[in-house]
Specification:
This protein is mainly β. Strands 6, 7, 8, 11, 13, 15, 17, 22 and 23 form a nine-stranded antiparallel sheet that branches. Strands 14, 16, 24, 25, 26, 30, 32, 34 and 35 form a nine-stranded mixed sheet that branches. An eight-stranded antiparallel sheet has the order 1-2-3-4-5-12-21-20, with no helix packed on it. It folds into three domains: about 230 residues; about 140 residues, Jelly Rolls; about 60 residues, no CATH class. Helix content is about 5%, strand content about 55%. The chain starts with a strand and ends with a strand. The radius of gyration is 24 Å and the shape is flat.
Length: about 450
């Protein structure tokens, strides 16, 4: 189904991606159209803005699902990207599949009409609430250990929420943020008019506020113009862009550790991976109180679950309620009984402690790489958890909550929320009334 391009005002257009996030094309704060993108994540809580610097006043055109801006020497094309499967080879030459642009994606494509004066395309970039991790080429040792990184992930950036950890209060929040990945900025592929291509080098300078694509000069010298630079290819993702095929009977974790926002009861843990080696492997996860980056004290483990064939989020419940404290920092660990593939990004230091699957002793680990595993924990605080996001003109903001037993529900940003009803006399009652079998109730306000 085609994605609709909707005008916001005379200078800006909007596109809603399959995951519910919105992308703005043009700068709504400027009286003239600019070759500018604003990529929102989590209802605008975090965003990336990128723009080709120009003072020229050029009107865009819309062709199908593309917004085009054309100057004499360069054009920019803005358009959505569908989820895609990318295949990379492991050390034995076997296919490993990766799902990219899981929640949709967006392209900021630059078209060079003739040989440019410089081999660099520099975009202005502004961000809110994000941190960036460069994804280098894998080392020979990492490849020998079973790691696989697609070509367009080599030299790319994984983009995470800057402050939210991987322990989430309530199922709706956990489903929304997962392991905190917002975007992936993939390495640009440069293609000329005859189909010859080369990889560009991507460099983000947060202090200078620039995102630069460097094109090999020898390619520009021999290319047939026009050439497409594929300047910025943004994927909206939830899991890591690389996969590591790891042996069993090792407890593994990342050194940073995470703290819950409030005291509560641990419900489950989730990890993204798949049964890459068809071993019918089992996995279990656990919480440890962090006593050091490489040490921890056991708290509680989940039940064991089978790892599925296709890459997905694997969730295992804690068999009994277990209290967790906001004053503590926890390692989120996992172990498995055989080979399987876990999705990750480069960005943290990971540790391992050799231990038979099913045993959970105190951790005494050793550094094993720079991986940031795709893993998170869901917990439940005392009482209901309420969320922003439902504003009604003339009424104010209504409360969204976890689905639970609430009969009223709303789907927003790819997550289903419950809408709680309270007595009309409740201090949090809104003016909106609903007739139920138990009488007339009010929808709860957000407070």
């Amino acid at each position: 189904m085609p994605i609709e391009i909707t005008p916001i005002n005379n200078t800006t257009y909007e596109v809603e991606l399959p995951g519910g996030d919105k992308v703005e094309i043009g700068d709504r704060d400027n009286i003239d159209f600019k070759p500018h993108l604003k990529l929102n994540r989590w209802d605008g809580e975090c965003f990336i803005k990128v723009q080709l610097p120009t003072t020229k006043k050029i009107l865009p055109t819309i062709e199908g699902d593309k917004v085009k801006w054309a100057d004499s020497d360069i054009e920019t094309h803005f358009y959505p990207l569908e989820p895609r499967i990318v295949i990379a080879k492991d050390k034995e030459g076997k296919d490993v599949k990766f799902r990219q642009c899981e929640l949709g994606g967006f392209e900021f494509e630059a078209i060079l009409k003739k040989k440019p004066k410089t081999n660099k395309i520099v975009l202005n970039i502004e961000t809110q609430g994000l941190k960036f991790y460069y994804q280098p080429a894998l080392t020979p040792e990492e490849i020998a250990e079973g790691a696989v990184r697609p070509d367009n992930v080599v030299g790319s950036y994984a983009v995470y929420h800057a402050t939210r950890g991987n322990m989430h209060k309530g199922k709706a929040t956990a489903e929304k943020y997962k392991c905190g990945i917002a975007f992936h900025i993939y390495r640009p592929l440069i293609t000329d008019a005859e189909g010859k291509w080369v990889w560009g080098d991507l460099f983000l300078d947060e202090q200078a506020g620039t995102l630069t694509t460097t094109i090999p000069q020898e390619f520009l010298d021999s290319a047939v113009y026009p050439i497409s630079t594929g300047t910025t290819n943004f994927g909206y993702e939830t899991a890591g862009g690389s996969n590591w095929g790891i042996s069993g009977n090792n407890i593994r974790w990342c050194g940073s550790g995470y703290s819950p926002a409030s005291d509560g009861e641990a419900l489950s843990m989730s990890l993204h991976g798949y049964d890459r080696y068809s071993k019918n492997a089992l996995i279990a996860m656990a919480l440890y109180i962090k006593t050091g980056v490489d040490t921890g004290t056991y708290e509680v483990n989940t039940s064991s679950v089978e790892i599925p064939d296709g890459a997905t989020w694997v969730t295992a419940d804690f068999p009994a309620s277990h209290s967790i404290l906001s004053s503590e920092t926890y390692h989120l660990v996992f172990n498995h009984n055989d080979l399987f593939g876990i999705d990750y990004n480069s960005g943290d230091t990971d540790y391992k402690d050799a231990e038979t699957f099913g045993n959970w002793p105190s951790l005494v680990g050793s550094s094993d790489g720079t991986r940031q595993f795709s893993i998170y924990c869901t917990y439940e605080a005392g009482g209901a958890t309420y969320y922003h996001g439902l504003k009604v003109q003339g009424v104010g903001e209504l409360a969204l909550t976890d689905v639970g037993n609430n009969p009223l529900r709303i789907r927003k940003g790819g997550v289903t929320y419950g809408i709680e009803m309270v007595d009309n006399s409740d201090p949090n009652a809104s003016p909106i009334r609903i007739k139920t079998s138990g009488g007339v109730k009010a929808i709860r306000k957000y407070t």
